[in-house]
Amino acid sequence: MTIYRNPSKKSAVKILVAASLLLFVSACDDDDEGLMPEPEPMLYRYQVTVANLTNAQPLSPFAVVLHNEGMLWNIGESANDAMENLAESGDNSQVLGLGVALAGVSGEDIIMPGSSETIEISLADAMPTYLSGATMLVNTNDAFTGINGLNISQMALNESISMVMGSYDAGTEKNSELAETIPGPAAGGEGYNADRDDVDFIAAHPGVVTMDDGLAQSVLTQAHRFDNPTIRVTVTRIE
Amino acid sequence: MMKMKLIAAAASFAVSGNVWAQDLQITVTNLTQGMYFTPLVIAAHSADASMFVVGESASPELQAIAEGGDISGMGTLLTSVSADLVENPADGLLAPGARIETSLSSADGNDYLSLASMLLPTNDGFVGLNSWKIPTEPGTYSFTLNAYDAGTEANDEIVNGAGAPGEPGIPAAPGMNAGIGATGVTSTEDNVLVHIHRGNLGDDDLSGGKSDLDNTVHRWLNPVARITIVVN
Q1: Mutate to test the interface with A, among B36, B176, B221, B228 (most CBs of A within 10 A)
Q2: How many CB pairs under 8 A join A and B?
Q3: In chain B, what are the domains?
Q4: Domains in chain A, ordered, with CATH?
Q5: Cα–Cα distance measured from residue B158 to residue B209, given in angstroms and rounded to the nearest whole number
Q6: Which residue positions does the secretion signal occupy (chain A) (predicted)?
Q7: What whole-number distance in Å separates Cα of residue A181 and Cα of residue A179?
C-alpha cells in the first residue's frame, strides 16, 4: 500500500538533506527539464518492533499505518468499524485500508507471549506526521492494544522512540468471556459480530475476570489474566 | 447531598508583577469503562500542603471524598492554606469515557498541582494526583493517574447508600448496574494507610454472592484517568 508519487515536470525538485533539515532549494520549470538530474525519490522508512508482554494473550498480526490526520481511536467515542473488526476478530485489513492511511503494513503472524516482531513501513517523498498501530488480545471479547497517533514528524534518522502501552476495550462486545464469543486459542469462538451489545465507547480495558476468579460462565482461566502494560513498542526511523 | 462551593478561577488572579503565577488549562479524562468519578477537586498549592500521601493515613477531608464524594471539607482546608482551586468542574459525576476541561490560575508560591475524586462504585477508592510540580516552561503536559484506596473503610462491596465517613458500604452505583443482597467481600481493612487500590472484586451473582458489584462491569486496571495540562 505504500504510495510512490512520480515526480512530474512541474513538481520535480532537488532535495538537499542538510543536518536532517529538508531544504527545497530549486524547482525547475519546463525549460530546465533536460538539464536537471532525475531526483532520487526520498524514502522515509521505519522499523516498528512489538513485544508481547503478557502471560497468555497471543496478539493478532500487528497493523501499522502512517497518516497525517485522524486517530485510530478516541477514548469515550464509538469505535470505528475497522477497529471493531480488529478488536473482535483480529482482522486488521480494514484498519490497513483506512482512508487516512498513507501506507499500511501488517505483521506476518500472531505474536505469541514473550515474542516480538519487527515490521517495516515506508513512505516516499513526504515525511508522515503520525504512526499508529493496533492488535487484538485474542483470548478476549474485544480487547486491543496499540499506539495511537504517535507524532514522528520530528524524528531524525536512526532515532528511536520506545514505549509501553496498556490495553483498551472497544466497547462493542460485552465481556461475557463465553467460549462462543472469543476467537483465540482458549476458546475458538466467533470473531467479528456487527452487533454492538456493550457500552459502545472505547475505554481502558478492565481486564478479564476468568472462571478462576468468579465468572462461572467464562472459558478463560487465571492464565489469561493480564495487567498493564501489555506491549512494548519501539519505533526507529531507518531511512 | 454535597455542598459545592464553586470558586471559578477566572482571570482574576492578575497580581501585578507576579512572575510565577500561571494560567493552566486542565483536561481530565475518565479512562474506565464502568467507574464514575464524583465531583473533582483540583488545586494548586504550596510545597508544604498535600491532599494525600501514599503510605500515610488519610485526612478526615480525604476520607470524606473517598467514602462519600464530599469535597466541601477539602475545599475549606485548601482555601485555608491559600490554595487556588477548582471544585466540581464537571457539575456532577464524570462518567466512564467522559472528559472535563477547566482552567486554573495559580498564584505565586502555589507551584504544585493535586487532584482527588471518589470512584463509584467503591467503598473508599479515589483517583488522585499528589503534588505534581507545575513546570515553569509553557507547554502541554499529559500523563495518567492511578486509583488509590484511602484505607479508611473495609472494601465490603455492599451497595447500601452509606457515604458518611465511618459508615460501611458503598453510597451508589451510578450506572444502575449493581446487584443486591451481597454478604460482603470483607469486613476488615488490612492496610489503613493510603495505597494503590487493588481493584473491585465483584461477582457474577447480582442477587446475592459476596459482592453487589458485577465483576464484568465494575473492575478496572490502572491507570484510571488521563490528565493533560497546558501551561500558558
Answers
A1: B221
A2: 72
A3: 23-232 (2.60.40)
A4: 1-41 (no CATH), 43-237 (2.60.40.2130)
A5: 10
A6: 1-29
A7: 5
